[in-house]
Design brief:
By secondary structure, the chain is mainly beta. It is 10% helix and 33% strand. The chain has helices at 7-10, 14-21, 116-123, and strands at residues 3-4, 25-30, 33-45, 73-78, 82-89, 96-107, 141-145, 152-156, 173-176, 190-193.
Length: 196
């Protein structure tokens, strides 16, 4: 049995929410049926001060939802062809979010789910889902807990943020140890245990 994650789960700093999302389920009821994936890789983005975050440039048409209520979807397009899904975290105005990077397929997923663009495509997520309230009772797109907990979580710097100065080296990428569904592994990682 799975339970939708409440808004309080997301009303915490991104580096706290991110590792707690590992093992949780991303669920989307589409016209073609239910799609479910277990989250195995994420990245935390901390808001205005984080030079790797879109919100570092302040409130724009693109980042508006990041400065709103926690538990909403921030979906954007990269390279003009790939959608990426983030979950807004922290207090309103913080501009923080967690990027969903990879899923372990659970139900209804036939495509590759490694990497944020492939994840969104496989789950049927695009810019129509920008601003979706993932905590709304009737939302067809939501995150849920079925009791699964990864034994170990590894951390590393985030991928593709070399332009972000000292922020490029912060260990804000979190992933499930030994999962075959994560993106290519970085050269250097550290591990932390997950409380049970």
């Amino acid at each position: 049995m799975m339970t939708r994650l409440p808004r309080s789960f997301f009303q915490r700093p991104a580096p706290e929410v991110a590792p707690d999302l590992l093992g949780k389920l991303l669920v989307h009821q589409t016209e073609l049926g239910l799609r479910v994936g277990r989250i195995v890789e994420v990245e935390a983005y901390l808001g205005r001060d984080d030079q790797a975050a879109h919100s570092s440039k302040g409130v724009t048409a693109r980042t508006r939802v990041m400065f709103g209520e926690a538990g909403h979807a921030y979906v954007y397009l990269i390279y003009g062809m790939h959608h990426c899904m983030n979950v807004v975290t922290g207090p309103e105005g913080s501009g923080s979010a967690v990027l969903l990077r990879a899923l372990e397929p659970v139900q209804g997923l036939q495509e590759n789910t490694r990497g944020p663009g492939r994840l969104a495509r496989a789950m049927g997520i695009d810019k129509r889902h920008y601003g979706t309230d993932l905590c709304a009772v009737n939302s067809p797109l939501f995150l849920a807990d079925d009791g699964d907990r990864p034994e170990r979580i590894l951390t590393s710097p985030r991928i593709g943020v070399h332009y972000a100065g000292e922020w490029a080296h912060q260990p804000f990428r979190y992933y499930v140890a030994d999962s075959k569904w994560v993106s290519p592994l970085p050269r250097v990682s550290t591990w932390q245990s997950v409380p049970r």
